[in-house]
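User: two proteins, same treatment. go.

Assistant:
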Amino acid sequence: MERKLQGRGMAASWYGIARTATIDRAGAWAELDDGGTAKIVTGVTEIGEGILTLLAQVAADELGIKPSEVTIGDNDTARSPEAAHAGATRQTYMIGNSVHLAAREAKKHLFEQLADHWDVEIDTLQSFDGEVWSNDTNLRITMEEAVGICKARGVVPVGSASFTAYGTGLDPVDGSGSPWQTYVFGTQVAEVEVDTYTGEVQVLGIWAVHDVGRAINPRGVEGQIEGGVIQGLGQALMEDYQTVDGHTTTHGFAKYILPTSLDIPQINCTIVEDPDPLSPLGAKGIGEPALVPTAPAIMNAIYDAIGVRMKSLPATPEKILKALKDKVPGREMYVQNARKQRAQAHRT
């Protein structure tokens, strides 16, 4: 057998977002302030995935101002609308939509007063980049001036909204039904090189394609996908958490090995945008879904390379060598012949 063998594997996944069997909702407040800036209040929890940046972008896009002019206020649930938990890849879908709807209502109050002040139809008003204007007229002012006119007429442009997943429930007898409002789909391809002398697996590249609905922040989406792939690589090849009788025997990161920058291959991301029809934003999410297909794709690539299935994670060098030792007689010759046939077909 050749010392180093290469293989490719693919895996596809789906992931549900927004519970429908039980109530899933999120609320938000939005206010246009003096100076043409905005404040958003919601019980959001930032755990490092960039949700505060995304919410600022959502509000800014709807109000027609810059993201830098949006402040995300106090998220203490004693003083802000409940947004529920930071998990299940729901924050963009649930909280993003509630902020979007709250900002839309605040803008509606502003436009109602401005339309009456200018004596134009509200449908002619638009806002972008800190300015408000009426189509087919020369009426154009800054957002700061528009807010001033609104408040001078006794109205504070404030909006509140909640976004709730459609509750469908599940059959109490057999549990059938639709437990999620929307689904995220993804496919990943992994290319690996297996050292048959040492059992070491090197991941040469990952190609990840994911449907995210609408990419609010494409760079953020790419970052989420890359982070998920790296987590999946660690799950597939390195991270080995051991317990005995319910007690951990992996007492530190010296044994529970995490991927470093030297272990990360080239990650190629492709974002597919298929807007969700039940979401005002059209966005779905890409937190946990990016992790799901990585390990299966790597395991399939290992199988393609050496012709044996790894049936437990992580696929450590020790497990690889044992699998090669226990290989079914004749399988090695079959793999070599199959590779020669593929190489010949490629040349012709």
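Protein 2:
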Amino acid sequence: MIQRDGILEMTETPTQLTVLKARDFASDQDVRWCPGCGDYAILNQVRKVVAKIGATKENSVFVSGIGCSSRFPYYMDTYGMHSIHGRAPAFASGIKMANPELDVWVITGDGDSLSIGGNHLIHILRRNFNVKILMFNNRIYGLTKGQYSPTSEEGKRTKSSPMGAIDMPLSPLSVALAAESSFVARAVDVDKNLGSVIERVAMHEGSALVEIYQDCNIFNHGAYSYATDKDTKEDSVVRLEHGKPLIFGKDRDKGIWLDGNRKPRVVELGHGIKEEDLLIHDEHDESLAFLLSRMSHPEFPEPMGVFYQIKDKCYEDLLQEQVDSAIEAKGEPNLEALLNAGETFEVKA
């Protein structure tokens, strides 16, 4: 709608006239992360995915908390909110309840979501809001200059742990699965499969968490070099494909096998072990997904891709069903009647 000579005229919106491309989702803000930060790669992939799936600017919302990753909403030419430390899931839940038609994304980090925000993260996942959560995990507090985080490895020496961290690190995917998230995945910031994983999460209906291994080249550079360097990654990563055996290695000659106690073992093919003997990935098996979430480098190759996905009713849909049932039973709501129901009193001057 535009105004000409004081008269309002209806016009078509830009999204009705053109198909948006990745560059159309770039805002006019200068992207200000450290040169070489893995956040740049994630930002580029998200822009490509939202364009590919036909998202619109007016129906997309990016919500963040506090941290380096939380600058993300400024760099997307969509609606967005830079909220409070750890509380992005609470804001996203409210936005989704108020307008279920919106595509709501949460951008967070390992410190933001697993420390002060741990409680909020658990509850948005268990409620199965149709919200997409991208967790940038660099195993460090970057914005506050290099303190150890909830995912930092034991023994990690930082400014806040000069003698080495003594905390047991959290596994984000194990937490998500325990919280009953209906979609759980992992990817690496510079890996070729990052875009396809983000596309899968974008198309999922329900709570979804993707852990993205992200390099902080200032305070924790090389934390995931085993999964990114061309000389090591194929022996350090196993790519998950639904219905296919867990095979890895430069020569595709290694695999994951379950022994008699259902414990995973790394085996070599051709030594009495055939492909059909290996563990077969099933995205709908929650127990298998949890087992995979416990496999970590260097004892195992780290799984990458979609660990788990199921279809279930979303919280906002169930809430609307309750509202509709209440209206059917009691009639249309009357706010004035509600405010004046029961005992009231009048304050006189």
